[in-house]
Amino acid sequence: MAETVDSTSCGALIIGGSAGSLDVLLEIFPALRNDIGFPIVLVIHRKASNESLLTDLLKSRTTLEVSEAEEKEFLSPGKVFIAPADYHMLIEDDQSISLDYSEKVNYSRPSIDVTFQSAAEVFGEKLVCILLSGSNADGVEGLKSVNNFGGKVVIQNPNTAIMPYMPQQAVQNVKPHVILDSHNMADYINKLND
Amino acid sequence: MISDAIDNEQVEILLNDVLESHGYDFLEYSHASIKRRIIRLYGLDNFVSFAEFRYAVKTDKQYFKRFLEEITVNVTEMFRDPSFYKSLRNDVLPVLGTYPFIRIWVAGCSTGEEAYSLAIVLKELNLLNKSLIYATDINPSVLDKAKKGMFPLNYLKQYSENYLQSGGLKDFSTYYTANYSLAKFDESLNSKMIFSTHNLVSDHSFNEFQLILCRNVLIYFDKDLQHKVFNLFDGSIEKLGYLALGSKESLEFWPKAKEYKRVKMEKIWRKL
User: Fold this and answer.
1) Per-residue confidence (pLDDT) for residue A1, from 0 to 100
2) pLDDT at residue number B3
3) Contacts of B209 (CB under 8 A, 6+ apart)
């Protein structure tokens, strides 16, 4: 673990992933400390029909409260919010959640770009976004916004990704704050607390 | 899409213009969503400055038509959430079938996919001939599409799967004829539909219904506006009538929610 974490406290962590990201999440979640001081939002591409599968899987791996995001719900520290299948998820200025059933973005709904972009402005430099394994380019535009608003861009090392295309696209197009191997992610997240 | 092309203040200026010049009130829409739609349109139409965009929206009637069409979300599908349609088929419509006449309001019907889905279920329950479906939307151009009952053929495979999962009894293709890239739905279905513009924000109740369907519309409204719309629905549903919402929407925080009883696990409530 070579990275240092800046003193700016984390307001929210958003993790975006597609094909091959579930393995990383299942590695991260059991290792997270139980006093995480910020909300964690997950935007994971998946089939529209397997509604609660991801939520149930993650629940079984962590003591943190995990739930599928409800419309108008407020983000709160120490909780994990999963963007529901087949809806885009946006963050409002008051840190409440808006859901949106508009056109797919990058063939995806939820789209990682949509959530990254809306959160980038709301949280500014207090935002941390992690982009994981995947086989399309969703997330790249969102990470650019995160950069523009001073948030931290974290990208999974494509060499450790089951599907390297998505993190590769990100590394090529966005200046990352840090590139992390999947086994260092939990440690990085735990230290965002300090 | 450049996500910071238009800031919050400009969004507010634009929405105030729209209200003042055109009478459409988007000020109580969920801010993040409407802002994203505005930035998306600004990018799509290659505007170079906010001033130019604002001028077009404010003064160009033709352009405002496009604005209205693009700012509202018109994505919909047939038999979306098959378990919901299964519950309509098995739990709700048979109850309404005991009435001499069934009035249904599909509020925010967009291009009509849900109204046609409903008509198909009614037809299979032998209730369509005594039913009337009022399908309304804020946006006149989507209603023109809805009236035609023609949907892109490439979606039909998905719709057909949804239909079968929802308990559909027939071969789905018996309901439409393929016409180039479009599927034209049977005219017996829309013979029982009345299409009309209606703005949930500013228009009043116009009838009493036994069932109101309003799915994935309220997610675009802020809480206060949601509650106003629930009140509007409350004033438009007969006693023992039903209200159906989208899979992520809920009556939960509305003060009068206790006067409604949830039907099984679906987002359907019955007025007590």
Assistant:
1) 44
2) 61
3) B103, B104, B105, B134, B236, B237, B238, B241
